[in-house]
Specification:
Length: 363
């Protein structure tokens, strides 16, 4: 971090002092030029993004408007559906589950705050269920529980139990979502899943089996980042089926416009996970979301597993019209901070406020 600050003070500051901060696109262009590399390796994304977002926030302040309003203007009135990572596995926990994130996506109540309430109730019921089963209720990186379970499907069953106990309707009020993060268990063309080495096709068959049994609305990184053909095959079958689910590319796209364009061209996914610190500037983030939307893809604004209390992504999600936000579980301050900011945004919008609800998953 000190290195990023040094780059800002010594390399960026001399070239941006005096630039009109209200012209965000021009400023971001200058930042990219100073860096000069394709992947921002000279200055680092931390330095570039820090300056880009600081300028964006200063412009909003100078215009006397909130950040989401500065970004999206008068039409930015619709709040995203939260994808809440309540059960952690994969690299975010050490419990042996292959799948990294088991999420709930409450679409109910017509307002973000109602969906947040539902998620929170389900999270606490899940804790109770785990305790009753003598399973650990310690949390992983993103605030979800990380119990040792028999297999991945048991995690889905636990989410179903918690949702049913909550009284919300499974598959109507609340859906399930997964981030498989499968690149983590892909090697030599095969997936090491639940102790066996299987092909992308076989893994896709497992997902389809689960989709028939559980209301899974969204599946992120079901296949490895360079296994394009498995993505394509899965999407083709998904498009042809009657219960279309959201197929999200995270590691597949790394928020990179070239990879997103390829995904659109090859119909390898139908949604983009947006990681701001991956792409590295506000203007590029905006363009990535616009590119996704122009192809009918949905966009999921995302936190990182390593996070701070910074809440910018909450404003970005509303300002850029993202259908969903993925910002962890219902505990750990760095996760709840984003939900609290969305509550403030809802309050500020007032009577005009809208919520994506089930439309977030309609294609
Ligand atoms: P990361 O995880 O921040 O560890 O990359 C988040 C995700 O995979 O969606
Ligand atoms: Zn992911």
């Amino acid at each position: 971090m000190l290195h990023a600050i040094q780059n800002i003070n010594e390399k960026i500051a001399p070239k941006v002092l005096g630039v009109n901060p209200l012209d965000q696109a021009a400023l971001d262009e200058i930042l990219l030029k100073i860096d000069g590399t394709e992947n921002k390796t000279a200055l680092g994304a931390n330095a570039i993004l820090g300056v880009s977002l600081a300028c964006l926030k200063a412009s909003a302040l100078s215009n006397g408007v909130s950040l989401f309003r500065h970004i999206g203007g008068e039409k930015a009135n619709r709040l995203p559906v939260p994808l809440m990572n309540v059960l952690n596995g994969g690299a975010h926990a050490d419990n042996g589950l292959d799948i990294q994130e088991f999420m709930v996506a409450p679409v109910c109540g017509g307002r973000f705050s109602e969906s947040l309430r539902a998620g929170s109730e389900i999270f606490h019921l899940l804790k109770k269920i785990l305790s009753e089963k003598n399973l650990s209720t310690a949390v992983g990186d993103e605030g979800g529980f990380a119990p040792h379970l028999k297999n991945n499907e048991e995690a889905l069953q636990l989410l179903v139990m918690a949702i049913e106990k909550s009284g919300y309707r499974l598959g109507e009020d609340v859906f399930l979502a997964l981030d498989v993060a499968s690149t983590e268990f892909f090697a030599d063309g095969l997936y090491k899943f639940e102790g066996k080495k299987i092909s992308g096709e076989e893994l896709g068959e497992i997902y389809r089996g689960w989709s028939r049994k559980y209301p899974i609305a969204s599946m992120e990184d079901g296949f490895a980042e360079d296994d394009w053909s498995s993505w394509q095959k899965f999407c083709k079958a998904n498009e042809a089926g009657k219960n279309k689910i959201q197929v999200v590319g995270d590691d597949l796209f790394v928020t990179n416009p070239k990879r997103i364009a390829r995904g659109i061209e090859e119909r390898a996914a139908n949604a983009l996970l947006v990681k701001v610190n991956q792409i590295g500037s506000f203007t590029e983030t905006k363009k990535a979301v616009e590119l996704a939307h122009s192809a009918g893809f949905h966009a999921v604004m995302s936190h990182r597993s390593g996070e701070t209390e910074d809440v910018t992504i909450a404003d970005l999600s509303v300002g850029l019209g993202c259908e969903q936000i993925k910002t962890g579980s219902l505990c750990r301050g760095e996760r709840t901070a984003k939900y609290n900011q969305l509550l403030r945004i809802q309050e500020e919008i007032g009577t005009n406020v809208q919520f994506w609800g089930a439309d977030a998953f309609r294609f």
